[in-house]
Amino acid sequence: MTAGVLIIGAGQAAAQLAISLRQGGFGGSIRMVGDEPYPPYQRPPLSKAFLKERPAVDSLFLRGPSFWSDHRVTLDLGTPAAAVELARKRVVLADGRAFDYATLVFATGTRARDLPVAGVDLPGVFMLRRIDDVRRLRPALDEARRIVIVGGGYIGLEVAAVLRQEGREAIVVEAEDRVMKRVTGEAVSGFFETLHRSRGVEFRLGVRLGAIEGSDRATGVALAGGERIAAELVLVATGARANDDLADAAGLACEDGILVNDFASAAPDVYAIGDCARFFSHRYGRKIRLECVQNAIDQAKAAASAILGAPKRYDPVPWFWSDQYEVKLQITGLSDGYDATETIGNPADGRFSVDYRKNGRLIAVDSVNDARSHMLGRRRIAAELIENAPA
Questions:
Q1: pLDDT at position 374, please?
Q2: In this predicted model, what pLDDT tens digit does every residue of 284-341 receive, in sequence order?
Q3: Rounded-to-integer distance, Cα 265 and Cα 89, Å
Q4: 117-to-121, 213, 221, 224, 231 alpha-carbon distances in Å
Q5: How far apart are CA 250 and CA 8, in angstroms?
């Protein structure tokens, strides 16, 4: 087969790239290499509906079983790429197979951050990044009543909500002094902490994990301050790091993510998209890496346009969401670095929004059960964060 586009990764970004290339009239070969045995699927439901409702695995698939073959996209699944030879334009898989390419795209996503504490490798310690993680976790949860969750971000709190809805005990251990501190302000953090406490979740905030205890399997955790918490299962949800090892080993520039330009290009005929890519945001005046569905889809479209010879600069207003119990949090923009906030509405009513400003300009809006403020926020930020404006 004539060398065409080779995509390392088989997630949301990879799927969108292949779709956009075909929609744009690309007639060459497209090959997708994924280390999981599944075709492209949705990841956000893993910590929510898929964990709670236990549907069939194929309910997560982005397209039906014949879609990829019908669109002449070759899927090589279940075997990771082991090496990238940029000079030879070749990718070598872990099983020894090698494929040539004309254009290479990294869509390698992220993996759980290493947790450097004793006991992290014990049976009964779980992480939640992939389908198979849920398939291992779900039976263990069914046998457990008391679970410690290490990390008070999106995933940790979403899982805590599922556990409480099932009547299980959930204890969240978070090193920061409030939940979701890295992504939201005090008003929203306080709202969600109060919500979870009202549903029975316990918190240990501002404390670090000392060790995961147990001999044959995890039996609980020891905090750095000396407290011990018994548990039948420990879930580690301490964030993610970019899968940029292959790119780094091949000689591409990486900074917790593969560095790309305004058109998703990392080098001639090489692109990186989605969670693994770090790019310069002209709106925010700094390099950013986004872990969200919106970025995966839109950056893939930008890369497809560039490959098709019609490059368009990619400079998004990011947006994210989280479902916890019956509450939907929608975030647009990046709030880190804000110097002023305004809360619109009353958090006690369960429906409100928060504007974040820096140097007088709107940089982010958090919306709780308020879809209208979210949509308006996206438009307002796009209007205020004009191209090339300093952050």
A1: 97
A2: 999 999 999 999 999 999 999 999 999 999 999 999 999 999 999 999 999 999 999 9
A3: 15
A4: 9, 10, 10, 11, 17
A5: 13
CB atoms inside a 10 Å sphere around CB 26: 18
Segment holding 380, helix H or strand E: helix 371-384
Pairing of strands 351-358, 319-324: unpaired
Please report, for the chain, how many H helices and E strands are present, in that order.
9, 27
List helix spans (H) across 34-125: 49-53, 67-70
Rounded Cα–Cα distance for residues 318 and 275 (Å): 12
Q: pTM for the whole thing?
A: 0.94
pLDDT at 138 over 80: yes
Domains annotated for the chain, with CATH where assigned, are 5-111+241-307 (3.50.50.60), 125-238 (3.50.50.60), 326-384 (3.30.390.30)
Nearest to 317 by CA among 344, 356, 284: 284
